[in-house]
TrEMBL record, chain B:
Positions in coiled-coil regions: none
InterPro entries, A to Z: Tscrpt_reg_PadR_N, WH-like_DNA-bd_sf, WH_DNA-bd_sf
Protein name, as recorded: PadR family transcriptional regulator
All copies of domain Transcription regulator PadR N-terminal, residue ranges: 19-89
Classification via Pfam families: PadR
Length: 842, 108
């Protein structure tokens, strides 16, 4: 407003010429008052705000300049926090998804699943299935149960093919009681829940099946399909269409038929002694599940002649995560992985946050001069607090943005590893994320904000800074925590990978290479002999055999054998696969004594084979020719003893096994000549199609199936590899930042030392020594913790590696090496520096 | 006339600026107007009118030389923009049109 002032002066001068000084002054004052008009003066209140805004702008500018000036620190900080956040976020997405499985039912909180604890002499087996009659009985006997559903358990699922207008489609079905759709939430697109599968000749199909078979949902209803499977063979009317089960449902099916159809096929499905159904209960609002649990426990005692089956109920959705039992007691399940990864995510987040705090505080102590100058000019403490907090919050928010970008970018790959279809919905996570990020920012900013701002400006400017020893201790402590966590990660990764390697390479006692297996689907009445004969003569086929049930799953059991006179009810449950001719030869199992089932000797169901463990278990001195009593007065002759082999996955120990004979098994095992696989498979397919025209040929290699048994461990291994990598990366970034900071701080010391004759080696040693010490402390701390966790994890396996000393040594040494590498670059740089450069400024 | 919004006093100040040419700064405008209008004006009224018109785009300004009389403060010399000239013309036209349309009551 220079010109106005000028004008005023000029007018004053004029007035002075005309009037007295006094009057001129008076006139001047009046003029000044008249100048107070909105066009010329901005509001007084506005002035204050302007200052506030100005300070904000100023702080932002200083912050941004700081980022620009210390690019390395800024980037390290940003990358560290954002990778940590992104990794944690991905894991939480996965955990969230795991926790959501089976919770889609509207009445989820009242939906329970009935389990059976079956008592054996030495152990208790837990079944997720019950008798088919149970649902009705419970509904009638217990008033607190609103409704009860039965569905065929997983052994009794109607599969096979449906045909409509000359076309065949494979289906995956479910036997269910008529109230199934009323209790469980599988929304209907067409039809009503009360009517949809009322009679045994109608079926409900899923939306996607309706579209593939009939083109549209509307065309499907009322139409007829022919369904042929091992359990059914008849026409059905489509009475309704339901939406495909959600992807987080464990029960996946595309066609539902009345349970009555199962009863027609197998009368045991409606018998107290049969275990054909899964029973789901819908409790009344406010019913006490615990009480019902106690009342229900002995229900089966009265229904069967023995007291071996104890019932208990469990929330329907809980089974997915808590599905493992040992001797009738719940011991874990998938929840263990969920917990493991939650811990990993928290660790990574912790490392990242520590990193961020460490670097921010280190950076802030460089700002002591700034604090001094600002305070001298008149900034009060509150403004400084505000500035420092704002700076670290801004940085953490930036990191959050980068992290979100990373998650969106990496989600497809992550889905591939975890074989899930996760989606990232920002709105679900934004609040907790903001909370984490803000608290990290505030925590990291609080040191400079509250501690540095308290300094006396004079002291700071003179360079007489209070002792910063304590601060350095905290920083080193944080680095120790970081490195301890990283070393634990490395130990874990070594253990997991070694164990996985072991499971793949362990000799199992049978051959896995060049062997394919496939299951014949279709009607029960099928004589495999001509099929086997045709396969056997194929040029690429070395050997072929058939058995009942999948070889790798190892879940064929039988009990009730006795081998000593008078001991009639020894109820040991034997693993007892039912195998046909040639299986022993095809799989390359070793015979210890006797012979295997053979056609030439006309072996049939009256013969049996044992494994070595079984011979030991029974205490047989001369097993060959021994007559084993399978049930009263039904003796089986032992014809051979097979050397022990791993049946099922390595989670199972080698147990006593019986090999029963069954010539009509539907699972075929073929050993191929190496090198001709593709050709031979093609030929087998043609033969299969000839004998079984309606069904697809789906062979798989035993080797792959074996690997698939460990898919969970595989995923855990892969994920933990990545996570350990991230943890180490972040820790190293932190270390790098810190050593840069220290070197900078001690540059004068280094300069003086060099002038006094210290060599580069001495300087490098000087700088490295402190960090080596911190890493060594971390190693000492990490080894026992890592040992504990690895040991716990290995307990999951019946056959596991032993923890060797070199796992820990390797982890420790690699941590040390990584630390040295990180530090080395920076130390060398400062050791080489010309002392003049760091001493000339004072 | 729609968007211009030129007040009566503003119009007078604007015309004075045009008249004074290179001498158009605060006090000079005030003096000139005081002479013509034969009444006292305050510095504030002139200055606020100038600022307002500058915002509206009628005037541009630049600093001139400082004089002893002004206590070493520089003058701000105003000049009218072409837009201002056009608006002034327009207003004059409207006035003449109105005058010619007026019945000769006042003069007769």
């Amino acid at each position: 407003m220079e010109e106005i002032e000028g004008d005023m002066e000029e007018v004053f001068a004029e007035n002075l010429a005309e009037y007295s000084v006094k009057k001129s002054r008076r006139l001047y004052n009046r003029e000044v008052l008249k100048l107070l008009r909105p066009a010329l003066v901005r509001g007084l209140g506005g002035n204050h705000q302007l200052n506030y805004l100005g300070m904000l702008q100023h702080n932002l500018l200083i912050t941004l300049r700081g980022f620009k000036r210390h690019k390395a620190t800024f980037l390290i900080n940003l990358i560290g926090l954002s990778t940590g956040l992104a990794a944690a976020l991905l894991i939480f997405l996965w955990v969230n998804d795991e926790r959501s499985v089976d919770t889609f039912n509207e009445k989820n909180d009242r939906l329970y699943w009935v389990f059976t604890n079956f008592t054996l002499p030495e152990s208790v087996l837990t079944w997720d299935y019950t008798s088919g009659k149970l649902a009705q009985a419970i509904k009638e006997e217990f008033p607190e149960v609103e409704d009860a559903v039965r569905v065929g358990n997983h052994f009794f699922r109607p599969q096979g093919t449906i045909s409509h207008s000359e076309k065949n489609f494979e289906v995956n079905g479910l036997f269910a009681s008529p109230n199934f759709f009323q209790v469980m939430t599988y929304p209907l697109i067409s039809g009503t829940t009360e009517r949809i599968i009322q009679d045994k000749n109608s079926v409900a199909i899923s939306e996607s099946l309706a579209i593939t078979v009939f083109g549209t949902v509307e065309n499907a209803v009322g139409n007829t399909i022919d369904w042929e499977s091992s359990l059914l063979n008849q026409p059905f009317v489509v009475s309704g269409v339901f939406k495909d089960p959600p992807k987080n449902a464990t029960e996946q099916f595309n066609i539902v038929v009345n349970y009555q159809a199962l009863i027609d096929a197998e009368e045991w499905a409606e018998d107290w002694k049969g275990g054909y159904a899964r029973t789901y209960l819908l409790l009344k609002e406010g019913a006490d599940a615990e009480q019902l649990n106690q009342k229900i426990a002995r229900l089966m005692y009265g229904k069967t002649d023995n007291n071996k089956q104890a019932l208990f109920i469990k929330p329907y959705a809980k089974n997915y995560l808590y599905g493992a039992y040992e001797n009738g007691i719940q011991v874990g399940g998938r929840i263990e992985n969920v917990r493991l990864f939650t811990v990993i995510a928290i660790f990574i987040l912790l490392i990242a946050c520590i990193n961020f705090m460490n670097l921010s505080t280190a950076q802030a102590s460089k700002k002591m001069k700034e604090v001094g100058v600002k305070k001298a000019i008149g900034a009060n403490r509150r403004d400084l607090v505000f500035q420092f907090l704002g700076e670290s919050i801004l940085l953490s928010l930036l990191a959050l943005l980068v992290a979100i970008g990373l998650v969106v970018l990496l989600l497809p790959q992550f889905n591939e590893i975890t074989s899930k279809q996760l989606e990232f919905n920002l709105s679900d996570f934004i609040l907790p994320l903001l909370a984490i990020v803000m608290s990290t920012g505030i925590l990291a900013g609080s040191y400079p904000a509250f501690y540095l701002s308290g300094f006396k400006p004079v002291a700071v400017l003179k360079g007489k800074v209070a002792n910063l020893r304590g601060e350095e201790w905290i920083r080193k402590g944080l680095v120790v925590v970081q490195f301890t966590l990283s070393i634990i990660f490395i130990i874990g990764v070594i253990t997991i990978n070694k164990q996985i390697e072991y499971t793949y390479s362990k000799p199992l006692g049978y051959d896995r290479e060049n062997i394919i297996t496939f299951t014949r689907k279709g009607p029960e009445s099928f004589d495999p002999t001509p099929f086997l004969t045709e396969l056997r003569v194929l040029p690429g086929v070395t050997s072929v055999g058939n058995m009942s049930g999948d070889f790798l799953w190892g879940n064929d059991n039988s009990s009730g054998y006795s081998w000593e006179e008078g001991d009639v009810d020894d109820n040991h449950l034997f693993k007892s696969p039912r195998i046909g001719y040639n299986i022993v030869e095809t799989l390359g199992l070793k015979l210890v004594a006797g012979r295997s089932f053979s056609k030439e000797m006309n072996d049939d169901e009256s013969k049996i084979m044992l494994n070595e463990t079984a011979v030991k278990f029974m205490g047989l001195k001369d097993p060959i020719g021994f007559q084993l009593e399978a049930s009263p007065d039904d003796f089986k002759e032992v014809i051979g003893v097979i050397s022990d082999f791993q049946y099922g996955s390595l989670h199972q120990e080698i147990e006593p096994m019986l090999f029963r004979f069954r010539s009509s098994g539907d699972d075929f095992i073929v050993r191929l000549q190496p090198g001709t696989e593709v050709n031979t498979l093609e030929k087998i397919k043609t033969i299969y199609a000839k004998f079984n025209p309606k069904y697809d040929f789906e062979p798989s290699f035993l080797e792959d199936d074996y690997r698939a048994l460990y898919s969970t461990e595989d995923k855990v291994a892969q994920l933990s590899n990545y996570m350990a990598g991230i943890a180490i990366l972040i820790s190293c970034l932190g270390l790098f930042g810190l050593v840069t900071f220290t070197a900078e701080r001690r540059s004068k010391e280094i300069g003086i030392r060099k002038i006094l004759g210290a060599s580069q080696v001495v300087v490098v040693k000087l700088l490295t020594a402190t960090f080596t010490k911190t890493v060594l402390i971390s190693i000492v701390l990490a080894i026992p913790i890592g040992y504990y966790f690895s040991n716990e994890w290995l307990h999951n396996f019946a056959y596991s590696i032993e923890l060797k000393w070199w796992f820990f040594a390797l982890a420790g040494i690699s941590a040390l090496l990584i630390a040295w590498l990180t530090v080395g670059f920076q130390t060398l740089k400062s050791a080489k520096v010309n002392p003049v450069d760091c001493l000339k400024n004072e | 006339m729609k968007k211009t919004k030129l007040g009566e006093f503003e119009e007078l100040v604007l015309m004075t600026v045009v008249v004074l040419q290179a001498e158009a700064y605060g006090v000079e405008i005030k003096r000139e107007l005081e002479d013509r209008l034969k009444e006292k004006l305050s510095v504030g009224s002139i200055q606020s009118a100038l600022k307002r018109m500058e915002e509206k785009g009628f005037l541009t300004s630049e600093f001139g030389e400082a004089t002893q009389k002004r206590g070493g403060k520089r003058k701000r010399i105003y000049s009218a923009t072409p837009y201002a000239h056009r608006v002034l013309e327009e207003m004059k036209d409207i006035r003449t049109q109105l005058w010619s349309a007026m019945p000769n009551i006042a003069t007769s």
